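QA checklist item 7 of 12: single-chain prediction sanity check.
[x] sequence parsed
[x] length recorded as 130
[x] structure emitted
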Amino acid sequence: MSEIAGHPGATAVVNESYSFACMRCGHGWEQSYEIEHHVDGDGREFVQYMVDGRVVPSPLSRPACENCDHHVVRIMRPGRVASARDAAHRGQPAPPAGPVQAPAAGGGASAQEHHWHLADLLHVFQRKAS
């Protein structure tokens, strides 16, 4: 197995990025990692996560918030934090929460609109009396 230039001992290097959001303080951030694949003296494979040339713990093990050091952190695909910040800077409000409006049966020519609620959706799971 040959080493990768600039990564002593590495047999492969993969770049991955993640978005993080702290569920305690709401801080969000993104981080890119170089993941080096190695083989130890006994032939077992292992990986090292690298940031700016430093070995760091796997972000998937027990991430800590950069802001409050809390460990309840949501890990998401890359770009999620950046897209949320971009939307906030453009002044786009988040869509309002509430009942979903379903189109009327028969192509939309109904005089009465129906707002769906959780109970409407759960009725299919209710047991029928025998």
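[x] summary fact logged: The first helix runs from residue 80 to 89.
[ ] second reviewer sign-off
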